[in-house]
Specification:
Layout: E1 10-13, E2 17-23, H1 27-32, E3 48-53, E4 59-67, E5 71-77, H2 81-92, E6 98-100, E7 105-111, E8 128-131, E9 134-139, E10 144-150, H3 167-176, H4 213-222, E11 227-234, E12 245-248, E13 254-264, E14 267-275, E15 284-286, E16 293-297
Antiparallel strand pairs: 1-7, 2-5, 2-6, 3-4, 4-5, 7-10, 8-9, 9-10, 11-14, 11-16, 12-13, 12-15, 13-14, 15-16
InterPro entries: YgfZ/GCV_T_CS, YgfZ/GcvT
Organism: Methylomonas rivi
Protein name: Folate-binding protein
């Protein structure tokens, strides 16, 4: 898969994401009963993608779960922050857990930091390192890192002088590697396997019960999901706010939905959720006036 050349040593303000801080004596036990990943397998050096599901196994949100010395950071789409917080709060009951939306933390993306960073950064995907109170998480693909840093420490970090690049470039990279971030309008539509959360090692099938676990486990043990996430590309710029669907060019029937998209230069990458593709090759198009051809890409 050919990816446009990415800028080096760049900074991104990740305003499309938000943080939920989960602390308290029962924080780990609480999240173990709500999220698809194995919370007990995390450490301050190892984060994980996860899904937060409703009782029917439909994803309320995708999350990046980071263990800290005091508890956990949950990184979620900004548009789902209030929804996820409210739904998690419903399950707290008498558990010794505190959910907060920290105002003293910032989210930044670093691309190709190279010699700008004078401390060791992790080399494996979703592994973490801590420096001056900031946590750096290695994201898939080229050397790029999601950083959670205290606002008070931001000026002390070497990346503060990096040139800022458009957020669309970061989103383009996330889409290119199949990270299934989505918005509130798509919440509670998909089970985790439809969005490849299992392929991102975000589901534990041995950890025990959590909300939605029965449906997620049944899909795993009885066969693959009826729909699946694919990375795709079109050779034009598409508007971010669209309601296009995916059609079979031959039958003109709808066969998929767009989960996310981002443009870089003259190319748009998309995450599309297709009805399970059989062995017969198909030509896919967008349901727009141009019937734009869609090319499916292998995951990076």
């Amino acid at each position: 898969m050919t990816t446009p050349q990415q800028p080096t040593a760049s900074l991104y303000h990740l305003t499309h994401l938000a943080i939920i801080e989960v602390n308290g004596e029962d924080a780990g036990r609480f999240l173990q009963g709500q999220l698809t990943c194995d919370i007990n397998g995390l450490s301050p050096e190892k984060a994980s993608i996860a899904a937060f599901c409703n009782a029917k196994g439909r994803m309320i949100s995708t999350l990046l779960v980071i263990k800290t010395q005091l508890g956990f950071f949950l990184i979620v789409p900004a548009g789902l922050l209030d929804i996820v917080t409210k739904k998690l709060q419903m399950y707290v009951l008498r558990a010794k857990v505190k959910l907060a939306k920290p105002e003293n933390l910032m989210l930044a993306g670093l691309n190709q930091p190279g010699n700008i960073i004078d401390f060791d950064l992790p080399t494996q995907d979703f592994y973490c390192s801590d420096n001056a109170g900031a946590v750096f998480i290695k994201m898939p693909s080229a050397p790029r890192f999601l950083c959670v840093a205290p606002l008070s420490a931001a000026e002390r970090h070497p990346f503060k002088n990096l040139p800022t690049r458009p957020l669309a470039e970061w989103r383009f990279q996330d889409i290119s590697v199949g990270l299934p971030w989505f918005e509130a309008s798509q919440s509670e539509q998909y089970i985790p396997q439809m969005l490849n959360i299992d392929q991102l090692d975000g589901i534990s099938f041995s950890k025990g019960c959590y909300t939605g676990q029965e449906i997620v486990a049944r899909t795993h043990y009885l066969g693959k999901a009826k729909r699946q996430l694919h990375v795709a590309e079109v050779n034009e710029i598409l508007p971010q706010d669209n309601d296009f669907t995916v059609k079979d060019a031959e039958t003109q029937q709808k066969c998929g939905d767009i989960l996310a998209l981002a443009s870089y230069g003259s190319i748009t990458r998309l995450l599309i959720v297709l009805q399970t593709v059989d062995d017969n090759p198909k030509n896919f198009i967008l349901d727009n006036q141009q019937h734009t051809p869609i090319k499916l890409l292998p995951r990076q």
